[in-house]
Amino acid sequence: MRSKAIGGRFADDFSQENILNIGGDMIHGISRRSLLRSFTGGVTAGIIGSGMAGQVLGNSLARSKSRMHPEKVLLWENTRREIRELLESGNLKAAILPTGSIEQHNEHLALVQDIAQATLISKLVALELYPQVIVAPPSPCGYAPYWMSRKGTITLRRETFQAYVFDVLHSLKTHGIRTLLVLNGHGGNHQPLKEAEEKWRKELGVTLEVDSFWRGIPREFRDRVLTSEENLSHADEFETSIALAGHPKGRVRRITMKQYDDAKLNYESGFSPDVEHFLRIDSRTFKNGKIYEEGENKLDRGRQRLSLFASAEKGEALIGKATDFFVAKMKKMIAATEAGQSWPLK
Ligand SMILES: [Zn+2]
Asked: Is the backbone peptide bond immediately before 131 cis, with ω within 30 degrees of 0?
């Protein structure tokens, strides 16, 4: 499944069909040209080739080619012997746990978007810092009750999600990994993770940070790269660009606004009791018992319209920026652990 256009070195040597291979095709060693070539299969009427995006192409993508097999940064692709030896040598110092969601991303993006982008950035960070950092198994499902009126969305209860993440972190700590980063790719997970962060730090006694990938992309950078001034934060130009760059083989469907309108979608009424149960868990859809007055339908259509501005080149720039941010953060965290300093640094 991996296209020849995506860096011959990785073209055939491992299967794309693995369910955990959800971080996208884009990986170290890929050339910018091959990425751009591959985006011809992209979105709708995407605006191609913003000069800015080209200039700020994330250098993590074009950086030195690593000499190891890229899948070595994935914990689950190693054997127990390999992990044991990495730990005993003192080379393996940290782990990243990607979290996300399997949820609706409007008409054009695959449901895997949030966990795919978190996993992709986690992989790029781990590759940059190899062999110090390993990627723990991504948590595909997250907290998303407010999207349950859109078909395909899967949600966990808040406490299920938190308990799952804690158990994975606890396991990693038990094996002697003392620096842990939860790298989140889904908006609804941010608060549940943040509210548990300090408690987890205390319980585990490790250097621990929880953060969402978009926080590594400063507002002014985003504004320079993206065309649309509005930011609807979901399935819009931002996420669609990342999908085009991160998975050039195709997680973006070609959808026109006519097709959108012809579908006559309604997310403001007519919910089944089951759906309404989920929507009322979170205040996004219902406020004070009434549907959000700005209008779910208007927001949904707005996201669809903004996605038309997306391009893979913009996505590369955004991914590169986030990767650089988390490489720097991970280095600081590892240094703090080595120096016996508490985290976050005072
Ligand atoms: Zn998303």
From this structure: yes
Domain membership of residue 98 (yes or no) is yes
How much distance in Å is there from the Cα of 143 to the middle of ligand 1? 12
**Would the pTM of this model clear 0.85, i.e. be above it?**
no
344 lies in some domain: no
- 176 C-alpha to ligand 1 centroid (Å): 32
Distance (angstroms) between ligand 1 centre and the Cα of 226 equals 16
Q: Are 181 and 333 in contact (CB under 8 A)?
A: yes
In three-state secondary structure terms, 96 is strand
Cα angle 158-162-151, degrees, rounded to a multiple of 5:
45
Separation of CA 342 and ligand 1 centre (Å): 32
Query: By C-alpha distance, which of 146, 152, 155 is closest to 267?
Result: 146
Residue 267 sits in a domain whose CATH number is: 3.40.50.10310
Question: Would residue 65 count as lying in a domain?
Answer: yes
Query: Span 198-214, mean pLDDT?
Result: 97
CA of 101 to the centre of ligand 1 (A): 8
Instruction: Provide the domain limits for residue 37.
Output: 18-338
Q: What is the CA radius of gyration of the chain?
A: 20
The reply to whether 113 falls in a domain is yes
pLDDT in tens, 173-195: 999 999 999 999 999 999 999 99
Domain count, the chain: 1
